[in-house]
Specification:
Layout (H helix, E strand, L loop, with lengths): L5 H13 L4 H10 L2 H27 L1
Helix pairs in contact: 1-3
């Protein structure tokens, strides 16, 4: 099997973030994925999530 590409990494991070990651995909990620790629995508997702929450709250308040 080949390394997961960027799309697979993004899908895995999003699925893990909302808690619907399948056991098969989780095992694939641990066996074939590289930690830095998951950390970078996870960090970017977290920043975008926080910024979107801030934007939503600011738009509701004002």
């Amino acid at each position: 099997m080949s390394k997961p590409n960027l799309l697979h990494v993004i899908q895995s991070v999003l699925a893990a973030a909302i808690g619907v990651q399948s056991n098969k995909n989780r095992e694939r990620d641990f066996e074939q994925g590289s930690l830095p790629s998951y950390l970078i995508v996870g960090f970017i997702f977290t920043i975008l999530f926080i910024l979107s929450l801030v934007f939503i709250v600011k738009s509701i308040i004002s």
